[in-house]
Amino acid sequence: MAEVEGTRTFRAAGSGYDGFMGRYSAELAGPFADFAGVGPGTRVLDVGCGPGAFTAVAVGRAGAARVAAVDPTPSFVELCRRRHPGVDVRSAAAERLPFDDASFDCAAAQLVFHFVSDPEAAVGEMSRVLRPGGVLAACVWDFAEGMEMLRTFWDAALSIDPDAPDEARTLRLGREGELSALFASQTLTQVTETTLTVGSRYGDFEELWNGFLAGVGPAGAYCASLPPRRQAALRDALFDRLGRPAGSFSLAAVARAARAIRP
């Protein structure tokens, strides 16, 4: 099974992810859990848990004993285990979930499906481990318009390198209707889609720039791969596009979310 371009760039340490994307995923986890219907008594599977932002919300609402999580990245699995004692955290891909049929009330994947090699197989596996009537939910960033941090970065990158691997061009399932169409193509019912808007505040531009230098994700990997002169040009282009902020500033992020019911 071919690996989606960019997937390997998440094999960095969890601390690098926390400073780069984790600050957004932590804000997104609550609204996404609301959308997925996670509450007291819900048996939850967090698919592609990363360091555990959504896992934390699920534990807070349902209790650690009712939450399980999987991720294919060993450093994320270990970090999620340390952060959430009592949660069943395993190393696995979304396409091969190591759980019995009908084990969960909710299977949720936050910011994962862009990087899933076989989305149809992943939906099939998530559906398989749900009880009848269980909820399958997923969300991804709207890279084309709504994820301000990444959109501004890639616009800056394209201004100095027309061949920069803009995630809006290279990754799937971030446009309106794509996630819900994926769900509707499977044996699922009551498919709905919405948008969830969150944001993050930076103390200064260097805080934002250091997140890219950590090399996490496609944007970070691209930034870190540049020779010093090109990296400096990218930094200047990004600074200009953000209006050359002198102090703190905020960036918004829009996620597209879809949910469905296993019949």
From TrEMBL:
Keywords: Methyltransferase, Transferase. This is Class I SAM-dependent methyltransferase. CDD domains: AdoMet_MTases. It comes from Microlunatus ginsengisoli. InterPro entries: Methyltransf_11, Methyltransf_Superfamily, SAM-dependent_MTases_sf. SUPFAM superfamilies: S-adenosyl-L-methionine-dependent methyltransferases. GO terms for biological process: methylation. Pfam families: Methyltransf_11. The keyword Methyltransferase applies. GO terms for molecular function: methyltransferase activity. Residues 45-137 form the Methyltransferase type domain.
